[in-house]
Amino acid sequence: MIAGIETGGTKVICAVADPADPGVLADQTRIDTTTPERTLAAVRDFLAPYAVKGRFDAVGIASFGPVEVDAASPRFGWITSTPKAGWQDTDLIASLGLAPGTPVRLVSDVTGAALGEHRFGAGRGVDDIAYVTVGTGIGAGLVVNGAPFSPRSHPELGHLLVRRHPDDPFPGVCPFHGDCLEGLASGPSVAARWGRPGPELGPLLPQAVEISSYYIAQLLATVTYATGPQRIVAGGGVLKTPGLLEAVRRQLALLVGGALADHPLTDPGSGYVVRPVLGDGSGVRGALSLAVDALQVRARTAATAG
Ligand code: ZN
User: Fold this and answer.
1) What is the mean pLDDT of the chain?
2) Hey, is 228 helix, strand or coil?
3) Domains and CATH numbers, the chain
4) pTM listed for this prediction
């Protein structure tokens, strides 16, 4: 049995599956994110009955962060300087009480979502995708040649510096930069700029879509220029705003212009930018995929050693 865990700022989703058929969840649960002690105790309680003779074949984790994803680091699996109250310096992996020697792979939450969508959702059929999320925060994760791009750090594109919209005097809400991408286009920035949350924009909606799409398209252009994905999966609560994703596709084509002639992004109807299809299940699907990958790596290593 394998386990997948997605730890998010408001909820933790856990699932277990047979490694031979990771697309079928044997069971799953959703746990509110409260204190690390209570939350991770609930995770242990959920997992325990599924551990065969007390152990899992492998475990994958997709976590909010900042989280140490370098397996060679002594702090591998620690949530470090997170703004989430009470979670600073939490040893996530040790807190799960796994049997010694259990293979564990861990990536950032958005990289996990990218992997889940690649294996089971809107990214199927291609090797390289980017997943971007625009919600309370903004982030991007990559799958390259079918594998999660998870170097010793992980992409932090939320703080991308962007060109200002000429009609937008809003100073931004990022505590570090003010008007970086997250400061100008995240859910909290929308609420602060317009004085009401996204779902209540009413008559302000067209103007809000114009300004937000201008910024979000710059993220997609940067991801395209830098990493050349075959497809971008774009999710998160802000992108559920009516008309916003369509406006982002149009802005992207305008913004990139002739710089990438014949690229599918030049046609807003090409399917280059798509919505996720797994809803809030993409992260836990990605976590299970990490567990499968960990098992395959172990099998190959054993075969080489033998
Ligand atoms: Zn910033």
Assistant:
1) 94
2) coil
3) 2-108 (3.30.420.40), 122-274 (3.30.420.40)
4) 0.94
